[in-house]
Amino acid sequence: MKVRTSLRALKARPGAQVVRRRGVTFVINKREPRFKARQG
């Protein structure tokens, strides 16, 4: 599955987690909640 460039940038941030739920990729960041994203 292709991951969007924006997700890749968010993934590098401290505290970021990449989660897949029901085929949708999410980036969740508990430490910095504004850095959230979804794809799919």
TrEMBL record:
InterPro entries: Ribosomal_bL36 (IPR000473), Ribosomal_bL36_sp (IPR035977), Ribosomal_L36_bact (IPR047621). Transmembrane segments: none annotated. GO terms for biological process: translation. The keyword S-adenosyl-L-methionine does not apply. Keywords: Ribonucleoprotein, Ribosomal protein. The keyword Ribosomal protein applies. Pfam families: Ribosomal_L36 (PF00444). SUPFAM superfamilies: Ribosomal protein L36 (SSF57840). GO terms for molecular function: structural constituent of ribosome. One of its GO terms (cellular component) is ribonucleoprotein complex. Belongs to the bacterial ribosomal protein bL36 family. This is Large ribosomal subunit protein bL36. It comes from Streptomyces zinciresistens K42. The gene is rpmJ.
